[in-house]
Amino acid sequence: MKASSLSKISKVLLIISAIGFAITIFVPIWSIYLSAPQYPEGLAMFIHANKITGEYEIINGLNHYIGMKEIHADEFWEFTILPYALAFFALLSLSAVLLNRKVLLYTLTGIYMLFALGFVYDFWRWLYDYGHNLDPSAAIVVPGMSYQPPLIGYKQLLNFEVWSYPNIGGGIMIGIGAILLILAFIEWKKKA
Fold first, then answer.
1. Are 153 and 163 in contact (CB under 8 A)?
2. Is the alpha carbon torsion for 64, 73, 25, 150 positive or negative?
3. CATH number, position 59
4. What is the mean pLDDT of residues 108-125?
5. End-to-end distance of the chain based on CA atoms, in angstroms?
6. What's the pTM value of the predicted model, to 2 decimals?
7. Which stretches within 2-101 are classed as H helix?
8. What was the pLDDT predicted at 54?
9. Looking at the domain assignment, is residue 3 inside a domain?
10. Alpha-carbon gap, residue 56 to 34, rounded angstroms
11. What's the domain range around 120?
12. Does any domain span residue 2?
């Protein structure tokens, strides 16, 4: 086996990663869930690669009272490129397998890690803007209060409990990141 060739297990896991990237285009990536005494059944919002689903219109109505911007999918440039980025990663994964080149695995891993860091930062930045840039003429103004939902985990915002966590697509993306890092390390350490 040539030193630049991939092992069989790497090829199999890269094919699985390509399938995972493709699935992520069609399933929710992230969930934000709110619960309050007036909404004991909770309100959920799901962020996909190209849209927002769930009860975000009700959330928009509630957030209006505290001066938060409304959430509309057409305001997010990310939704226009994210499906293409995921398709690109799927194709790059398959290219590494078909061309049997370690350099493509390393390239995929590096680009995907940078993408993942940028994705997390962009989401945090969006949550920060959403929770801090409030309308000063809102019906309810609590001096010094911001309403930034958590990036991941739990946060109490007034009488609302808010949870934010990866959904199916987010879990797949995290899993693929771990697989790519492990494969790149194993292939790099492997002797010729």
1. yes
2. negative
3. 1.20.140
4. 95
5. 7
6. 0.89
7. 8-24, 56-64, 78-99
8. 94
9. no
10. 10
11. 8-189
12. no
Task: Determine the length of the chain.
Answer: 192
> CA nearest 4: which of 129, 106, 83?
106
Amino acid occupying residue 168: I
**53, 48, 44, 56: which is closest to 26 by C-alpha?**
48
Q: Is residue 94 part of a domain?
A: yes
Q: List alpha helices for 7-73, DSSP H.
A: 8-24, 56-64
- The answer to whether residue 110 sits within a structural domain is yes
- Strands of 38-188 (E only): list them: 39-47, 52-54, 153-157, 160-166
> How would residue 192 be classed by pLDDT, with cut points 50, 70 and 90?
very low
> Residue 3's pLDDT band (boundaries 50, 70, 90)?
low
Could you tell me the CA-to-CA distances from 83 to 14, 24, 51, 149, 189 in Å, in that order? 19, 8, 10, 24, 33
The structural domain count of the chain equals: 1
Comparing CA positions, the residue from 184, 11, 1 lying closest to residue 97 is 11
For the segment 126-164, what is each residue's pLDDT rounded down to a tens digit? 999 988 888 888 788 888 778 889 999 999 988 889 999
Token pair of 15 as six digits: 């094919």
Please give the single-letter amino acid code of residue 71.
Answer: I
Residue with tokens 């002797």: 191
Strand order in the sheet with 39-47: 52-54, 39-47, 30-36, 160-166, 153-157
